[in-house]
Amino acid sequence: MPPRRPAAQCVRYMAAFWFIILLVTFFSGFAAATTGVTTSTSNQKPTYITSLPGLDGALPSLLETGYVRPSMPMTMDDCRYVTVDEENGAELFYYFVESEGDPGRDPVLLWLTGGHRCSVLSGLVFEIGPVELVREPYDGISLPRLRWNPNSWTKVASILFVDSPVGAGFSFSRDPNGYDVGDVSASLQLIEFLYKWFSAHEDYLANPFYLGGGSYAAKLVPFITQKISEGIEAGVRPIINLKGYTVGNPLTGDSIDFDSRVPYCHGVGVISDQLYKPHKVAARKKRARKTDHPGLSPSS
Questions:
Q1: CB of 36 within 8 A of CB of 69?
Q2: Strands, E, within the chain: which ranges?
Q3: Which N-terminal residues, if any, form the signal peptide (predicted)?
């Protein structure tokens, strides 16, 4: 049997769990009232949030939430020039946190959470967002508190957190078929999302734009970056001021992620030459088997 956690630790976990439920409930109230942003001339407006439960004072910068309804492209080459998927009614939810520095000049970053299919709210309150949970003993009565994140990336950039794919967080589809998305279709939806979002937020078009994501999302980020780059070369509008991308703890593929662990440990001195030599021989034989039998999985 696994070791039991101390009662106090379990209480802290439960407190954090219910606080996240409170945050989700708080945001969902705005999500329910938020309408889709489709074009810069639309009469539909996003929602602006100025305070959060558990946080003393107002937020240090603009926090905007809203929905964008992406298209469902038929092909990768046609991802920009398709109509809205009215049949499925898929919509992506976002949080946009404006830079605390110079929003007119600071970079804009699209951030995706891994998982797969986890809510990007975790990235906002646990990783790079402007607020974080206060780690302190729980008194059993009051709610856990939020505080400013001194290492928030919003100090130097505006961040666009998106719940993707459809079904993650507050992103939803009116038709169950809209949830049937894979890596490619989810990436194409995000490309459509970005074109529509920038069309509705033209003030940020001149800002340097970067894409980022962690874990599983790192599989999508390079592909999205490449397709946007191709769109720029083709003159697709609006022209996004694309500068690059960043990935954290990226998931790329079994043959790279797993087979590189031992060479890495050897390179940093964790594994001796004596232990590493047999591994090199075994790895060489494994690659030979995969070459002779391409159908073998990386774990074969």
A1: yes
A2: 47-49, 63-68, 90-97, 108-112, 131-133, 146-148, 158-162, 172-173, 209-214, 242-248
A3: 1-33
Q: What is the pLDDT of residues 265-280, one digit of tens each?
A: 999 999 999 999 988 8
Termini Cα distance of the chain: 31
Q: Is the peptide bond before 201 cis (omega within 30 degrees of 0)?
A: no
Strand pairing partners for 96? 64, 160
> In 3D, which of 148, 146, 142, 150 has the Cα closest to residue 133?
146
Contacts of 253 (CB under 8 A, 6+ apart): 298
Block residue for tokens 């100025």: 50
182-187-189 Cα angle (round to 5): 95
Residue 195 has pLDDT above 50, yes or no: yes
Per-residue model confidence (pLDDT) at position 175 = 87
